[in-house]
Structures are given as C-alpha cells and as structure tokens.
Amino acid sequence: xxxxxxxxxxxxALPARARxxxxxxxxxxxxxIGFGLVFHVLAASPHIPKVELVEVHRQAQSSGIPxxxxxxxxxxxxxxxxxxxxxxx
Length: 89
Fold this sequence. Notes:
The protein is an all-alpha fold.
C-alpha cells in the first residue's frame, strides 16, 4: 500500500523525465481508504495510462483459486469443501 507521504517522497526523489510504474489490484468491491487510496485515485484518472492484466499467472485454473477469488470479488459466497485437517505424512 502506498500512502500520500510515501508517494510524495518517491516522486520528489525521481530524476527529471523518469517513469514510474505502479502495480496494484483494482478490486471493484474493496473500499479505497487510507494507504491504498493513492493508487486507486491515480488508477481512476483518465490522464494516467493503464493496462489491466486479465490472465491468471499465479495459480493454475485447476486449483480452484481463480474461481473462488472471482466469486468473492463479486460478493458470492463460494462453495468450499469441509476442511479435513492436515494429514501427517
């Protein structure tokens, strides 16, 4: 998360003509408050170029994680199997 004082310090330290790449999550259901607000204000600006990545790279689709995350993002309670505990191997 990036707060206003930190963003100010970063921008002031950048040399002239430097470029700054910000990477964040634009979850539509998360409130933007405090520390995360700077990124979301910039991301919402029509004057800031942006690219949205839509392909999942961190988890395999077969793991179920992308589907569960999508359901949570849109306010749907996912159907999860009961926790069976840790297996001692």
